[in-house]
User: Fold this.
Amino acid sequence: MSKNQYTVGLLFLAAGVVILLGKLGLFAFIGTNFWPLFLLIPGILLHVLFFGRLLPPFVLIPGAILTINAFLFFFCMAFGWSKMENLWPFVILSIAAGLYEYHLFDAYRPKFPLTLAIILALAAVSFFVIMLVWGWGLYIIAAFLIAAGAWLVVGRRARW
Assistant:
């Protein structure tokens, strides 16, 4: 058998296996359940390449964004996409984390990315607090106002 026939035979064999696995639904299963890996792997790879001194520090910004959002998407796939209505500020927080990493690991320590990271982190935390207050936190505020009002009314009568 010639070397050319051997190579063509291996290509046919590989193509047949790929087609068979595709027909059995393996690629659909992987694409449906593990697609955040296409975000996680490049995010981690950017970090590895930076810490291996192969890429400049600004690659940490997309690296952090991809990594954090991949974990967010894995969480939503495991526990339901309805959780995203409360977890969306993590997208903003991922940008802040990337900017902070850039500030932290750049040799010149630029101030603008740090300032922007702090602003974005405060915005994300503010959105979390607003969502808590808008949800069940509103009941806590109402109960606190009722208790404070009752204490003021009862406390005033006892003093009169």
Q: What stands out?
A: Helices lie at 3-23, 26-33, 37-51, 60-79, 84-87, 89-105, 111-159. Residues 22 and 28 are 7 Å apart (CA to CA).
